[in-house]
């Protein structure tokens, strides 16, 4: 068998006037092989079989079964072929299926990338597309685990977008993100479009849940749910997700706080996103200019009343870090898990124990200021507890000698006294004197008589 490189070289040498024998000596191939490929009887890269292909008799059955069920496992098909006399290996079956392209494409399960996509017009001020973007490996100081969540909202007509970082995708964080992003976009469109997220609708039927219906009424929008398996219906926000992940999240520093990351995201969306040029009917214009001309309804003065809760761990100074600030708790909760909750847009923040008992309430400071909000009662209690601990004495060294003290010696004396046996026990344990005495002189005389004899 000649490769394509060998076949090209053989034909080039032949065009220079070389004989078949000279070409065979130069390339190291047999003269009959060279002659066959020069005549066009051989196919480069394909080795001719010495006999008939043993897979040919089973091609029709394999084709029929994979046409009936495109998702049929090759292992299951191999079990069926064994009963029909199939003598090749499982690897030969899978290789022939790939090489002969016997498995058809399932049209019902084709991804959106393999389908023709319709151009969907978006009128100005008509639709906002929403989607959650999962971002892996957030900075460790955030305390969010392995995944951060970014709610992205984008105006379908202009492409203007904003985002909201959250530690969870539950409904309270969704509502908080909807309010913040909507205010960042500058207004409310007529329709909000979502995929089938469980916090908005029933994933099976696509019907809006009762809890989210109140949110939609508060902002005066209609809710549109994407059809199942139609990812391109939200193509505008999907492209924004790709941009946010590759151009912003990929370069985020490890030492950046959540509040600093949120400010960085807002700045990126305004500087990089709003300055993009778009083709319009009047020529090329930036996203910011196109979005400014969209007829958006004003955002309600107050956010939708929903309580956002997050779990935090109090420090040894009885302080709880939340949104770039620190709030005090009683010293009994130092280094304990607490639940921080507050209404969206509210003035106060509540801190409760893990069982739900509210033990502190503070006025919320602006996010990211780095201020310390402390209650005077917490300050006095913390200082009292700290001084009581400080007066307890120096800590023990690991190799310090500490013999038993007076209390331990007194306890040991009581144990020894209990251990002494009573009079009855002594009498019981005294051995009896009524034992048989053996006279050894009898044995001595017997031994002497035996010696004399």
From TrEMBL:
Residues 5-66 form the HTH IS21-type domain. It comes from the Bacteria. Transmembrane segments: none annotated. Coiled coil: none annotated. Residues 117-294 form the Integrase catalytic domain. Keywords: DNA recombination, DNA-binding, Transposition. Pfam families: Mu-transpos_C_2. Belongs to the transposase IS21/IS408/IS1162 family. This is DDE-type integrase/transposase/recombinase. It comes from Mycolicibacterium gadium (Mycobacterium gadium).
